[in-house]
């Protein structure tokens, strides 16, 4: 597997990736250079500089995962990635403190004119009256976007004895109350705040949230801070408001175009504090995001679920802990079920029994789909594209939960429906060991990690021996064997563990044995 690392990603993360994959670090690639080399890579790691466009994704024949060493994924065409089944993951927490502290530093620098005073002194001047500032205590801070960074800024502003009001359509009043602040509408914030800081992603809803009209509603002499994303503030409108004094000052870390156009009107203003997208640029944050993203890339390339994927439903850590041991089992059960199916699958029912029913099991159902679709599709099926691929093939997927689990702490059941009828596979964990415990009503105890042959047959003397002899003559060693404890009268199932792959012609001969209904070889080693 080959990993391409672009932008300045910390060495710690690169070292983690290098232990497992062939890693190449290439900084400052032009869009054309990226387009030319991307077909060779299985994974791509970026920060905010590299633009992962639709064209890049179209050219990326082998790409399985894009890791963003940071929060914002607006430089990645996530929709195009999802359509292609490419996982996009980020490192949402590693730079929270860095961006929070940078915001506070920007706010204080702005209030006390520190950058301008510093520049003046470097110019051999001593201008005390020119740089009189304002205090934070008693001022109202409006926080727009009360997520990780917004909440961190609010907490620190409370410590500065500011009155904090916040707007976030997805945050409840309890969260605000715990921070010692109040929720408010955008209009309330515009009308009341002395300082307003923005901490939400750039979306269709947030683009130019601060435009001419919004600026006109603000308190005269307001100060604005944007350490979230360029484009939340209309820069031309802001420049005008800074020039005419409606806005007393602004502290801006992120810009509509990065690097900033040298002709930008913001660059010529005195009442502005500017930094070149430095919010996440601390030593600690860069190690944090690089290590987090490396863990994500490693999991994704191993085919394991990724907790920080942005184009998959997120999984809470306590849920992941409970369901993670079942991922391989679920995938192998899906693989078994599709191998048993005797025609196109029209429906899949995944039933959960036991304590596992208390948590969200959607990702396990996706693991079943992954195992079921991978053997039959040309393209690689993963946790991102599996549900969409099932839907595109008109396969109905249903989850059923029942807390009671007969004989097992937790039991997974996969039922596939075909025009010919259906098949059933049940599995569980014995301690940490995965086991398939039922196939089509026949109780078995199969370790789903090796190469197995499943043969349904008539329950009468001589049938099993004939299969053994035939495989032996074909040079296939049988290293394990299970015969179902049957609940189904007249028929049974044998599951043979074999050491070699079996040629199709030999499987056909096994199927042709009188009393054998079929012979399906499943090589779990390929999962
Ligand atoms: N300057 C930097 O270097 C730097 C560093 C880290 C993060 N960021 C950016 O800061 C922003 C916040 O990051 P975070 O980690 O706190 O993200 P987060 O996901 O924890 O918080 C974002 C918040 O925005 C809210 N939100 C969404 N739409 C909104 C809307 N229309 N109005 C108001 N609120 C809305 C969400 O509910 C959420 O609570 C992101 O844009 C991120 O890319 C910048
Ligand atoms: O979204 C983020 O994480 C920040 O904007 C940081 O971007 P950077 O990794 O390019 O510094």
Explain the layout of strands and helices.
Blueprint (H helix, E strand, L loop, with lengths): L1 E4 L5 H10 L1 E4 L5 H7 L5 E4 L7 H6 L5 E4 L9 H6 L3 E4 L5 H17 L1 H9 L17 E5 L3 H12 L3 E5 L5 H7 L2 E2 L2 H7 L2 E4 L13 H6 L4 E5 L8 H9 L3 E6 L19 E3 L8 H19 L15 H7 L3 H14 L4 E10 L7 H12 L12 H7 L3 E7 L7 E9 L2 E10 L2 E7 L2 E5 L4 E8 L4 H11 L4 E6 L1 E2 L4 E8 L5 H9 L7 E4 L4
Parallel strand pairs: 1-2, 1-3, 3-4, 4-5, 6-7, 6-9, 7-8, 9-10, 10-11, 11-12, 13-14
Antiparallel strand pairs: 13-15, 15-16, 16-17, 17-18, 18-21, 19-22, 19-23, 20-22
Helix pairs in contact: 1-12, 5-7, 14-15, 15-16
The structure holds nicotinamide-adenine-dinucleotide and 3-phosphoglyceric acid (3PG).
Structural commentary:
It is a single chain. The chain is of the alpha/beta class and 527 residues long. It has four domains: 2-93 and 284-314, NAD(P)-binding Rossmann-like Domain (Rossmann fold, 3-Layer(aba) Sandwich); 96-274, Rossmann fold, CATH 3.40.50; 316-440, D-3-phosphoglycerate dehydrogenase, domain 3 (60s Ribosomal Protein L30, Chain: A, 2-Layer Sandwich), CATH 3.30.1330.90; 449-527, 2-Layer Sandwich (Alpha-Beta Plaits), CATH 3.30.70.260. Helices cover 33% and strands 24% of the residues. It is built from 18 helices and 23 strands. The strands form four sheets. It has a seven-stranded parallel sheet, sandwiched between helices. Strands 14-13-15-16-17-18-21 form a seven-stranded mixed sheet, covered by helices on one side. A five-stranded parallel sheet has the order 2-1-3-4-5. Helix 10 links the parallel strand 9 (195-198) and strand 10. Helix 1 (11-20) runs parallel beside helix 12 (283-301), helix 5 crosses helix 7 (148-159) and helix 14 crosses helix 15 (362-373). The structure holds nicotinamide-adenine-dinucleotide (NAD) and 3-phosphoglyceric acid.
